Amino acid sequence: MVALRYCATWTCALHDITCIGCELLKAIMSPTVFKEDGFRFFFFSSEEERMHVHVISGDGEAKFWLDPEVELAKNYKYSRQQLKQIESLIEVNYNELIDAWQKHFGS
To answer: Is the pLDDT assigned to residue 78 strictly greater than 50?
Structure first.
């Protein structure tokens, strides 16, 4: 699991650099939906069924539920201001996120 976490932040846990194997694993296991304002919005392929999105940047990580409404599920190190900014980006890109979820998970 550590390798996936590091891959999500663009670095290989074993080599402390970006490596092709980790980039491939990241693309398969955690596809990026979009990037904006330094945040990466993505899914993990082998997670729970409830619709949600993960967000990561150099400042922290968060998970937001998308259904039945946009709601913070988990936060690690983001300030309230950053969480409001992220939630706003999710709302603006909500349809894109839902479409990407349905295409990726087939639901």
So the answer is: yes
CB 87 within 8 A of CB 64: yes
Whether the bond between 68 and the residue before it is cis, its omega within 30 degrees of 0, is yes
SS3 57: strand
Write the DSSP symbol of residue 13.
T
**Residue 54 identity:** H
Tokens linked to 95:
């349809």
- Secondary structure of residue 102 in the 3-state scheme: helix
Place 18 in a pLDDT band, splitting at 50, 70 and 90: low
**Alpha-helical regions (H) of the chain:** 2-8, 20-29, 80-92, 94-105
The pLDDT score that the predictor gives to residue 8 is 43
Each domain of the chain, given as residue ranges in start order, spans 1-30, 31-105
Between CA 31 and CA 21 the distance in angstroms is 15
